[in-house]
């Protein structure tokens, strides 16, 4: 019996790999991509980067400006995620099977989260550009909408997976809906909710660079400006600053997760 299971698993794995290979070959044919040229160009690209794409003494003078734009990007990402988390918690409580009030409110909550979650942040940026133009507000709203959809789904699943013991005990004691949510649901799910918020902040800081290129703000705009003006040394310094900032944020986030979990 166990042998048959292992054989079926291997057959399924082989079938999946075959389909993946066929899909890859089909994509290469349709897009007319020259795979050989792509692989052979890697050494040349690495050589160019080693020769041109590195900070020099002159680019260090741009460091204060880079730091200001990076700080702006970090603050916008954190602010958008924080407000999105509050809105997502409300919608998750209404849409959860554990705490939802049922009826059209739960359906509307889930559908709203689905719509916002399935529109990429870059798409939100392009949509909002028509209404708000290239400014910080456009980037902020794009991050907010993207974070709202993702966090609503994550919060809803977290609440659905919680133990019902404390909820049923409070209901049996005559506690109302708001009391159950405040004194049972939120305290029980708080570590997981904070973990999701920290993860979203990390993701938004990465996405904010691309959004900055589209909206003409933040560290992304600065990178685009330097790169288009062929100032590769300053552009490489921007990339280095982003990498260091992300590593620091991720380290702090991982530490906080270990503490709260």
CATH homologous group name of the largest domain: MetI-like
Please report the total strand number as a whole number: 0
State the distance separating the first and last CA atoms. Answer: 40 Å
Number of domains: 2
Helix content: over 70%
Question: In CATH terms, what is the architecture of the largest domain?
Answer: Orthogonal Bundle
The CATH topology label of the largest domain is MetI-like fold
Note poorly predicted spans. Answer: none
Q: Which key terms come to mind for this protein?
A:
261 residues, mainly alpha, MetI-like fold, 2 domains, 10 helices, 84% helix, 0% strand, globular
Could you write a compact summary of the structure shown?
By secondary structure, the chain is an all-alpha fold. The protein has helices at 2-31, 35-52, 63-95, 103-117, 121-132, 136-160, 165-172, 177-215, 218-228, 232-260.
Please characterize this protein's 3D structure.
The chain has helices at about 1-30, 35-50, 65-95, 105-115, 120-130, 135-160, 165-170, 175-215, 220-230, 230-260. The protein has about 260 residues and is mostly helical. It has 2 domains: about 1-50, no CATH class; about 60-260, MetI-like fold. The protein is globular. The model has no long low-confidence stretch (mean pLDDT about 80).
């Amino acid at each position: 019996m166990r042998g048959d299971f292992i054989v079926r698993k291997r057959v399924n794995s082989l079938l999946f790999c075959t389909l993946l290979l066929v899909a890859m070959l089909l994509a290469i044919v349709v897009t007319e991509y020259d795979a050989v040229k792509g692989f052979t160009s890697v050494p040349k690209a690495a050589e160019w980067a080693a020769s041109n794409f590195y900070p020099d003494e002159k680019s260090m003078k741009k460091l204060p400006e880079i730091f200001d734009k990076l700080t702006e990007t970090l603050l916008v990402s954190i602010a958008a995620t924080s407000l999105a988390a509050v809105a997502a918690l409300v919608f998750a409580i209404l849409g959860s099977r554990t705490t939802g009030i049922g009826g059209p409110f739960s359906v509307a909550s889930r559908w709203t989260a689905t719509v916002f979650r399935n529109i990429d942040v870059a798409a939100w940026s392009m949509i909002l550009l028509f209404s708000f133009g290239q400014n910080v507000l456009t980037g902020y709203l794009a991050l907010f909408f993207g974070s709202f959809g993702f966090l609503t789904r994550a919060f809803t699943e977290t609440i659905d997976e919680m133990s019902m013991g404390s909820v049923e005990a409070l209901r049996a004691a005559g506690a109302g809906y708001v009391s159950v949510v405040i004194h049972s649901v939120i305290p029980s799910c708080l570590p997981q909710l904070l973990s999701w918020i920290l993860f979203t902040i990390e993701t938004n800081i990465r996405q904010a660079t691309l959004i900055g290129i589209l909206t003409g703000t933040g560290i992304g705009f600065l990178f685009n400006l330097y790169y288009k003006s062929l100032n590769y040394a300053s552009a490489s310094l921007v990339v280095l600053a982003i990498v260091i900032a992300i590593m620091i944020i991720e380290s702090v986030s991982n530490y906080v997760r270990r503490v709260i979990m």
